Amino acid sequence: MRKKKKKPFGLALFAGLGVLASVLTFQMYHEAEAKAPSIKMKSQKSHLERSYDVSGKSFVETVKLGAIGDILIHDTVYEDAFVNPGYDFKPMLSNVKEYLIEPDLLLANQETLLGGVEIGLSSYPMFNSPVEVGEAFIDAGVDIVSNANNHSLDKSEKGVMASIKNMEAAGLPYVGSYKDDADKQKLRILNKNGINVSYLSYTYGTNGIPVPIGKDHLVNLIDREAMKAEIHRAKAESDVVVMSIHWGNEYQRFPTTEQKDLAQFLVDEGVDIIFGHHPHVLQPMDWLTATDGRKALVVYSLGNFLSGQMWDYKDIGGLATVEITKTITPEGNEIVLNNPEFIPTFVSSSRQRNYQVVPLQEAGKFGLAGAENKYNEIMHHMTQFIKE
Asked: Model pTM?
């Protein structure tokens, strides 16, 4: 007699409970939905359609601009930098690097060509320097160099082209001497902290070496109409216009009447800051007022920063800085210059060896007698016209 199979009562019970739970859940959902308030989702406007009230709001940006003087590499300097098979100028700048990297943008006057050994190194009176000079100053904080000066054509067109090629390879921006007309027409505008700064550069001449006919791009010569046109073009595309200019008389510690007259012309046309070069000694800083009421800064000469020249103030240079404040308001933009400062430097050497650029205030540790007194003298000399 076969046993009677038991019905799967437990399984049936479980299934029945599941159905009941589903029915109850469905009923609760619809009751809750009936009680819930009705919510309509509004479509959001695109960002372009949104309207914000910015009336009365202003935004402020600041930048510190700096400049150093002549990089005039005599043979005693590049021979001291020789480390077979190349050259290393970085140790010469190690004592001032902390000051050079402090400005947001730093200009230097590259007085000598950087044509390198390929076209033959040379010293006074027709210079050509190792390419490693540029690399050292980039490492020390230089952002752009002016290359329009009385030594621009020392090695003719070949020297200009070789120097520019090497600067481009090193990533060093330049202004004042160019490879062609297209290069000349391209404004040098550097941006920092939302402020656009244009750099221009001109020289009084090229030591009697004529600029080849049809090749005016090789070097910018001082010409008021040409300068006026470029200043206006730069002013339209930037917030600040900086002029690096080769002018004045060598070894004269105060600006000439011609320098002062040209400075006022440049400022009236739109230049905000003038950094002067060529005298190989320091000439004072001064405030100028433009015809439109702007306040502009001129440093008539920054002297020698690194060179083989010695004594009679030729081994003293420095770093000039000024703060730029850009205020953006609904009514327009305003540019204000403030806090011009100067840090004097000294080129220390021993028997034309061991060249080092050092802070003048610390030069006593590098063999300069009366360094503190010399520092005080130079600070008075440079700031006598800007003291408030």
From this structure: 0.85
CA distance 11 to 337: 89
Q: Which of 344, 337, 339, 338 is nearest to 380 (CA)?
A: 344
The residues facing 51 across adjacent strands are none
Answer yes or no: are the C-beta atoms of 71 and 306 closer than 8 Å.
yes
The CATH classification number of 63-384 equals 3.60.21.10
Interatomic CA distance for residues 203 and 237, integer angstroms: 23
Q: Return the structure tokens found at 350.
A: 């021993």
Task: Give the C-alpha separation, 300 to 279, whole Å.
Answer: 9
pLDDT digits 0-9 by tens, 33-55: 443 333 333 333 333 333 334 45
Q: Within the chain, where are the H helices?
A: 9-35, 75-80, 90-93, 97-100, 132-140, 156-170, 181-185, 224-237, 257-269, 371-383
Confidence of residue 32 (pLDDT cuts 50, 70, 90): very low
Backbone torsions φ then ψ of 263, nearest 5 degrees: -60, -45
pLDDT at position 56:
62
Q: What are the boundaries of each domain within the chain? A: 63-384
Q: Which two tokens stand for residue 61?
A: 């940006």
| Mean pLDDT, the chain, whole residue set | 89
Separation between Cα atoms, residue 279 and residue 210, nearest integer Å: 22
Q: Which residue has the tokens 């690194």?
A: 306
Residues 370/378, Cβ–Cβ less than 8 Å: no
Average pLDDT over residues 162-187: 98
Residue at token pair 């930098």: 81
State residue 19's pLDDT score.
41
Given a contact cutoff of 8 angstroms between Cβ atoms, the answer to whether 115 and 130 are in contact is no
> 190 forms bridges with which residues in the sheet?
197
d(CA 131, CA 170) in angstroms, rounded, equals 9
Tell which phi-psi region holds residue 303, choosing left (phi > 0), alpha (psi between -120 and 50) or beta.
left
